[in-house]
Structure formats: structure tokens, C-alpha cells
């Protein structure tokens, strides 16, 4: 029998990613995996990625909207790491063959101008640390079969992180009413879902505050220059070669993504 440890779980998940081979949830084999240990696995994953030359460029929140929570059947938000190797320039195609079973979701993205460190961060304080706001698309690619997982599983798997695209239009936060900022999510030109920024925790600034406060418990502060993906505004869509998705926002512009 395998002795499950943080190191072993990290190895298993990194192998799944590298070989594009999805697997059963870790908790099927390691039922005692709790949330704290799952975050330790996530930390070990990113430690290995950075040892391998990747650079942390920010964090993401996941499961911040009802649409995502209902789909994944998990009602608790989470955080995970973003690295430079996940960044896809806007306009570049997504090569689906590099991933397992990618899905795409529209997100509001922050770039921090100031360090943000919890606890006690409010949405107002969080927004004051934001230098620019962008439209984004996140490409998620769970290392688990059919995106079937519990909260500790998905935390250990770095929240299904795979790629992200940041749009070309930068806005200052004070120019926008982000709760009311609208998003049309289209697939092959057809609107499949709509939302406003309020979909994530009532306001994306609340999501950012949540990230700062929960990361503080693990001794992490959000650093100037970091990106923060605030979480899928709508359910994600499965993409295949030939699929064209886009997030169209009222003031943040459009982020298109063509899959090959
Ligand atoms: C987990 C990642 C969730 C989001 O924005 O809610 C996420 C998943 O759905 O596989 O990235
Ligand atoms: Mg996401």
C-alpha cells in the first residue's frame, strides 16, 4: 500500500499534469486528507514548479461565484498559485492537445499596486491596493477524471490551474463600478452565460479581501505587481480544437480565445 504524504501527492499530481493523464481524486486513496494538508500539497507543487524555473506571478481565487459553486458542488472559495508558464498572451491560440480536458471561464483580474496583507482586509482596503483591472479568461484543467473532486482534492491540485489570458484593456479601479460591470460569455459567437462583477462574492473587491485574509493565515501577503484572478463569473465551458470563446465586458473590453 502507498504511504500517502504531502510529497507523494505532489508527485502524483505533477505527473498527471506532465503526462496529461487524469486520475481519480486523491481523497479516494487518502481519505484523511484535510484542507490544511491539501494546502501543503499545493505549496509543495508550486515549490517544485519554481525550483523547475517557473515564477509565481500571482494568485487565483476559485469557487467565488454561485455559478461555479453549484456546478462543482463545493460552496467554499479557495486560493491557488499562478505562474508565468500559465500565462497565454491575448490573441495566442490555446493548443488543447497540451492539456487534459480544458474548460474556460470569464474572470475579472486585478493587478496590485501595493502590498496587501491580512487579516482584517476589507473590500475597500483591498480595492485601494489595486492599480489596474482587466478582463480575463481562465483555462482550468483538473487533473481529476471529469473534474470530480472534493474541496481538499481541488486545493491540492492547485485549483485546476492551467492557463490564463489577461485582456488588453487596463482600467483604473476608480473608473468602474465593478459590481455592475457586465460580462457576456460567448462560445462560437453565441452568448452562453452572462453575469456582472457582483457574481463573485458580491463584488470582486470582496474576493480580493478574502484572498488577502485567508492567505495571511498561511503567512502569505499579496505582493505589488501580482495578478489576482477573482474567480469564474459564470460556469466554465469545455473547449475543443476549433472552439472560439470570448468574454465581452462593458468597460473592460473583450478577451477572445481560439482553440486549436
Ligand atoms: C476549480 C477551479 C475553480 C474558479 O474560478 O472558480 C476556479 C474547478 O472548477 O475546477 O478556477
Ligand atoms: Mg477560475
From TrEMBL:
Pfam families: FAA_hydrolase (PF01557). Transmembrane segments: none annotated. One of its GO terms (cellular component) is cytoplasm. Residues 84-255 form the Fumarylacetoacetase-like C-terminal domain. It comes from the Bacteria. Keywords: Lyase. GO terms for molecular function: 2-oxopent-4-enoate hydratase activity. This is 4-oxalocrotonate decarboxylase.
Amino acid at each position: 500500500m502507498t504511504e500517502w504524504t504531502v510529497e507523494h501527492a505532489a508527485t502524483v499530481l505533477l505527473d498527471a499534469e506532465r503526462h496529461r493523464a487524469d486520475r481519480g481524486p486523491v481523497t479516494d486513496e487518502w481519505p484523511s486528507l484535510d484542507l490544511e494538508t491539501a494546502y501543503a500539497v499545493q505549496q509543495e507543487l508550486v515549490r517544485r514548479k519554481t525550483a523547475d524555473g517557473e515564477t509565481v506571478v500571482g494568485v487565483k481565487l476559485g469557487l467565488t461565484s454561485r455559478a461555479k459553486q453549484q456546478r462543482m458542488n463545493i460552496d467554499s472559495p479557495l486560493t491557488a498559485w499562478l505562474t508565468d508558464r500559465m500565462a497565454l498572451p491575448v490573441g495566442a491560440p490555446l493548443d488543447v492537445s497540451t492539456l487534459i480536458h480544458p474548460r474556460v471561464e470569464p474572470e475579472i483580474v486585478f493587478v496590485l499596486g501595493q502590498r496587501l496583507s491580512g487579516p482584517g482586509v476589507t473590500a475597500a482596503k483591498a480595492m485601494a491596493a489595486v492599480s489596474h483591472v482587466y478582463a480575463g479568461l481562465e483555462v482550468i484543467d483538473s487533473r481529476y477524471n471529469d473534474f470530480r473532486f472534493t474541496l481538499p482534492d481541488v486545493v491540492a491540485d492547485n485549483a485546476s490551474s492551467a492557463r490564463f489570458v489577461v485582456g488588453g484593456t487596463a482600467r483604473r479601479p476608480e473608473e468602474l463600478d465593478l459590481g455592475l460591470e457586465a460580462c457576456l460569455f460567448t462560445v462560437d459567437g453565441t452568448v452562453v452565460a452572462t453575469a456582472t462583477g457582483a457574481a463573485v462574492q458580491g463584488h470582486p473587491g470582496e474576493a480580493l479581501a478574502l484572498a488577502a485574509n485567508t492567505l495571511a493565515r498561511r503567512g502569505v501577503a499579496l505582493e505589488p505587481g501580482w495578478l489576482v484572478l477573482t474567480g469564474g463569473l459564470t460556469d466554465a465551458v469545455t473547449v475543443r480544437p476549433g472552439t472560439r470563446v470570448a468574454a465581452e465586458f462593458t468597460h473592460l473590453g473583450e478577451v477572445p480565445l481560439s482553440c486549436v
